Amino acid sequence: MPVTSEDDEVEPALRRPPPSPTRRRLPRPEVEEESEDRSIDEESIAGSATPATGGISEAAFSPKYFERHGNNPKELGRGGTGVVLLVRHLLDGVSLGHFACKRVPVGDNHKWLEKVLMEVQLLQRLSHTNLVSYRHVWLENVQLTTFGPSVPCAFILQQFCNSGDLHNYVLSSAKQTTKEQLKDQMRRRSRGEPDLPLDLNKPRKLPFEQIISFFRDIASGLNHLHSNGFIHRDLKPSNCLLNDTGVPGQELRVLVSDFGEVQMESAARKSTGATGTISYCAPEVLRKVTPDGGYGNFTAKSDIFSLGMILYFMCFGNLPYIGADMVNEENENLDALREEIMAWPGLDERTRLRPDLPERLYQFLKTLISPDPSVRPTAEEILMGIEMQEGTPLVIIESAYSNRCFEFF
To answer: Which of 13, 32, 176, 322 is the most exposed place for a label (fewest CB within 10 A)?
Structure first.
């Protein structure tokens, strides 16, 4: 979502979050340094001391920390678990820079706080150029509605990426669709026909070099997660943030964000429904293992499918499903879209929606979004197979992975 203007009114609850009458004003607890070699897993969080009541300890709160140190907050976006704000962090009047601050209501629920802190653990320890970095976390009470009570919220201060997200970057012109274009789109969909290819003269047509640069950034961040035993489970363009450092001639960089659905790859799926945005989900995670049983497990290969769909989206500005709505996701019929994804036969690389893209890209894309998980390469194989060099787009690296790697030119 776009950042609001300087004149926009800040939500009153953000300016002065009243403390809960049941909480005492206490100094912020000291954070102990942890050894670098400590493994990252769910037990490292779940094993911490839990209050006997199941609630959150009073000593964990930092009353009015946001009011004292978060200057001029602006809303960046909202998700299923909370809101993300752009803030200028101040310490005794000294600006420490702009940051993205994720505010997640946790209530007086220690178990839910554990789940939120799982994301914090990942941000803190899995440092990588293509993963959003972590800065600080604290708890305080916030009055989220005008007449409602104060609610305990976790605030996660993290790196601010100053150029929006990949979804809006690609669809910057698609949101200006005329009424006649919308009517034609609805008529085509009612006849079961796919949307017309994008007008390739519009800004959403990313050049091949930029597509591959963005793709390599996302694959690099994803590989770092996978190599540490974690899967993302909600990889999509809106979770791929763009950052411009301001260095002349330096390209935009992409950082993977939003680790709220991350889990260890070895963990069995416990939820009974779909996790993440369904349009980018692999078919095997939408399909029930048995008629009365649960759904298929998320794996590193299901992340690769999502990565492939992001590549498809960057190339063509849409997805290969009739029921997918890139601009207004809330208009999707989820049941129908789920059935369409599960029945999708895979990409026919002979259908050249953009003749300017090399043939090998279509072949590569076909393997990434294959309905068969065993056909998809790993993130490591992708990165081992391609290398950016000055003067040439991409070249193949001869390695042990060469039989599964792909050459772009």
So the answer is: 32
Domain ranges of the chain: 58-160, 208-388
How many other C-beta atoms can be found within 10 angstroms of the C-beta atom of residue 382?
Answer: 26
In 3D space, the residue among 162, 233, 252, 223 whose CA is nearest the CA of residue 385 turns out to be 223
| Cβ atoms within 10 Å, residue 369 | 24
350 contacts: CB under 8 Å, gap ≥ 6: none
Feature table: binding site for ATP: 102
CATH number listed for the domain at residues 58-160:
3.30.200.20
Tokens 């690296």, located at residue: 397
Q: Decide whether 58-160 matches 208-388 in CATH topology.
A: no
Per the annotation, binding residues are: 102
Which residues, in sequence order, are CB contacts of 334 under 8 Å at separation 6+? 274, 278
Three-state DSSP class for residue 124: helix
Asked whether the whole model's pTM tops 0.90, one would answer no
User: Is 234 annotated in the active site?
Assistant: yes
Q: Could you give the CA distance from residue 42 to residue 266 in angstroms, rounded to a whole number?
A: 11
d(CA 146, CA 150): 10
Helix (H, G, I), strand (E, B) or coil at 75: strand
Q: Which CATH class is domain 208-388?
A: mainly alpha
Residue pair 164/242 in contact (Cβ under 8 Å)? The answer is yes
User: DSSP character for 373?
Assistant: G
The encoded tokens of residue 273 equal 């429904």
Chain centroid, CA 221 distance in Å: 11
Task: Give residue-wise pLDDT tens across range 359-375.
Answer: 889 989 999 999 999 99
The string of pLDDT tens digits covering residues 293-322 is 788 889 999 999 999 999 999 999 999 999
In the set 195, 234, 303, 325, the catalytic residue is 234
